[in-house]
């Protein structure tokens, strides 16, 4: 078992909340490492925007691989990749993409249970997605990889969110997921309900209204992803510094 994979998996099974920053290039990943984060992941939205694309697999996979290679060449800590919908139309194509990541040294992925048609994102059929997940897991049975399933019931604000989430979590756990990611879940009651319906470590995303890290940890949440937060805040500084520059408020000495 590779040390980084072992470390990454262990980080999801302790009493301490794993706060996972999301990088968009090698330099941001290095800065997160230097600031003491035990692991780092990509944000597909941040990487896409940094390369001039919109999120949603509009970024060519080969360009994404280049960024991933540069990050892996620059850090020592465990590294996970936001694989969006898998960049493939079949379990076999997705598994082949995942093999490329594993061969590079990636120890985890996120893959989501929704799809995009035109500009509209909708949930995939839960049973079909679970079957695809099981096929991918079987194809990669000998590989060391933490598969975190992003369940989009809350980010899409579907009807009967709690009930639909319960059903999907049970299907994905049975199909071989290692973790569950529920972006945009925020209410403590909803978090408790999700936790009571899976044995898998639960991952939430940093958004307004989310309980503080200590509360999340006490509830039983095991991973807090920062998503595009650091990326957005970094680039907001360009606007702030530009305004200061043109009002002569930036010191030049």
Q: What do you see in this structure?
A:
The structure is a single chain. With 253 residues, this protein is an alpha/beta fold. It has a single domain (3-246), classed as Phosphoenolpyruvate-binding domains (TIM Barrel), CATH 3.20.20. Helix content is 45%, strand content 16%. The chain is built from 10 helices and 11 strands. A 9-stranded parallel β-sheet has the order 1-11-10-9-8-5-4-3-2, with helices on both faces. α2 runs parallel beside α4 (61-72) and α5 (91-104) crosses α6 (126-139). The longest helix is centred in the C-terminal third of the chain and has 18 residues, at 229-246. The protein starts with a helix and ends in a 7-residue tail after the last helix. 37% of the residues are buried. The mean pLDDT is 96.
CATH-defined fold name: TIM Barrel
- Strand and helix order: HEEHEHHEHEEEHEHEHEHEH
Shape: globular
The number of domains: 1
Q: Helical region count?
A: 10
- As laid out across the biggest beta sheet, the strand order is 1-11-10-9-8-5-4-3-2
Quaternary organisation of the protein chains: single chain
Q: What would the average pLDDT be, to the nearest integer? A: 96
Any guess at the CATH architecture?
A: Alpha-Beta Barrel
| Percent helix | 40-55%
Strand content: 15-25%
- Provide the gyration radius in Å: 18 Å
The name of the CATH superfamily reads Phosphoenolpyruvate-binding domains
Query: Quick one: how many beta strands?
Result: 11
Main pleated-sheet profile: 9 strands, parallel
Write down the CATH class.
Alpha Beta
Low-confidence stretches: none
